[in-house]
Design a protein that fits this description.
By secondary structure, the protein is mainly beta. The protein is 15% helix and 42% strand. The chain is elongated and about 115 Å long. Bound molecules: calcium ion.
């Protein structure tokens, strides 16, 4: 059997070769594009601008970083940026976005401040723009921890420097954005209240020490993750906790 290649066959063959070439070309183009994307990502480390965050942590230590970081809410941050060989006269545009919530804030200023109150990952982007075109960009991830709150069941306001103030357990509260605590006596009379989580009750009512015994605390608080806290518990006020120190401040 002989097979004669017709003009039609030749056309089909030619067409499929062209099609094949287009596919290969597309594949190469896709490869080049993804390579370029990778390259620009790795170049990002040496980008012209660098976001700088300055904040104070719970223990009162001020930190400045250009890296992603994790902290507790409420987190107040001062944002600045540094630039190397960047064209002058560009407009800085900041974006604050939360990964999972709808929070999306834009700021048009060189340096800016922002308070993070939602647990989870926040993305901070700084773009330097010229006529709506982004010429330089940098980003930073700030993770806000889940909330936690615990209140103790006893304290000893005897001025020995140990456990003299009734307050939230210092290493057991995290990312609390709202806090209100009340102290009651056994008759339901309110003796004290406070809203600063770092503060507490010194065992006094109208400036005078109250008697040793059982009191009650009620705490209403809210975490950065949306958790609502309603804590009710006994508070044992014990000045004579340690007999060896009782002589110094016995009523
Ligand atoms: Ca004490």
């Amino acid at each position: 059997m002989r097979y004669k290649i017709t003009k039609k066959d030749a056309e089909v063959l030619l067409f499929s070769v062209i099609l094949q070439n287009i596919r290969i070309t597309n594949m190469i183009l896709r490869k080049i594009t993804s390579l370029l994307a990778l390259l620009s990502l790795s170049l990002g480390a040496f980008a012209g601008i660098d976001i700088q965050a300055t904040y104070t942590d719970k223990s009162g230590v001020e930190a400045t970083t250009t890296d992603n970081f994790t902290a507790e809410a409420p987190l107040h941050v001062m944002f600045t940026w540094t630039a190397t060989s960047v064209e002058e006269g560009l407009t800085p545009v900041w974006h604050f976005r939360h990964r999972t919530s709808s929070t999306n804030v834009t700021r048009y200023e060189s340096d800016t401040e922002y308070t993070f109150t939602e647990a989870g990952i926040n993305v901070v982007v700084l773009n330097l723009c010229k006529n709506d075109e982004v010429l330089e960009t940098d980003s930073m991830l700030i993770t806000i921890t889940e909330s936690q709150l615990e209140m103790p069941n006893a304290f000893s306001p005897n001025d020995d420097g140990i456990n003299d103030v009734y307050r939230a357990k210092q290493d057991k509260y995290k990312s609390i954005v709202e806090f209100h605590a009340y102290i009651f006596n056994r008759h339901g009379q309110k003796l004290y209240e406070w809203t600063d989580i770092t503060k507490g009750w010194d065992g006094k009512y109208n400036g005078s020490p109250v008697k040793d015994g059982v009191y009650f605390v009620y705490v209403k608080a809210r975490g950065a993750d949306g958790v609502e806290y309603n804590i009710r518990r006994d508070v044992n006020l014990i000045r004579d906790f340690n007999q060896t120190t009782s002589s110094s401040s016995n009523e």
